C-alpha cells in the first residue's frame, strides 16, 4: 500500500506501532534534521516537483536546480508546517516559492506543455494542419511567458496538471477565490494574446 501510494505521488497514511500516522512521524523526523526522512520524502515526491518546475520554467537544468532547492529548504520549512495539508501539497508549496523567485530573477523562456497545443488530429494530417498546430504552440509559449508569475502558476496547476482550484489554493497558500480570479485573468490574457497573433 505504501509503495503504491508513493508511486502515485500520494501521501501515505500508514500508522506506526505507537499509533502515530506515518506522515506525522515523518514530519517529526524532518524537523529533527533526520537525513533519512528527507530521503524518503524526496523518493516519494521528487518526480511531481520536477514535472511541475519543468512546466513553469521550461528548462530541464533549471528545473533540476529547483528540485534540489525545494528539498534542501524542506527541513527548515517543516518546522512551521502545522499539517493542515498533505505533505505532497506542502512540498509543492515550497516549490512554488522557489519557482516564483527563479522566474522573477531570471525571466527565462519556458516551453508550454503539449496539453495546450493538443487538438483533435485527423488520421492523416496535412502539412497545413501540422503548421497550424506548430503556430498555436509557439503562440501559446509566447503568451504564457508574458503572464505574471502568479497567473502562470494558476494556469499550470489547474489547466495543465488539472488540479482543482481548492488544491491549487492549498499549494500556493491563497484563498480559493484568489486562484479563480488569477485563472480568469490568465485565460482572458491568453485569449487576447492569441487573437493578436491571429490564432483562433
Key terms:
200 residues; Rna Polymerase Sigma Factor, Chain: A; Arc Repressor Mutant, subunit A; 2 domains
Secondary structure elements and their pairing?
Blueprint: H1 2-7, H2 22-31, H3 35-57, H4 60-78, H5 87-106, H6 114-117, H7 127-145, H8 149-160, H9 165-172, H10 176-196
Helix pairs in contact: 2-3, 2-4, 3-4, 3-5, 4-5, 5-9, 7-10, 8-10, 9-10
Give me a quick take on this structure.
With 200 residues, the protein is mainly α. It contains ten helices and no strands. It is elongated and about 60 Å long.
Radius of gyration, rounded? 19 Å
Number of helices: 10
Please summarize the sheet with the most strands: none
Q: What is the CATH homologous superfamily assignment of the largest domain?
A: RNA polymerase sigma factor, region 2, helix turn helix motif
Q: What form results from the Cα inertia axes?
A: elongated
Structural class: mainly alpha
Total domains, how many? 2
Helical content class: over 70%
Average pLDDT taken over every residue? 76
Q: Which band does the percent of strand residues land in?
A: under 5%
The end-to-end span amounts to 46 Å
**What is the count of β-strands?**
0
Q: Which stretches of 5+ consecutive residues score pLDDT under 50?
A: 1-20, 107-122
SSE order, as H and E? Answer: HHHHHHHHHH
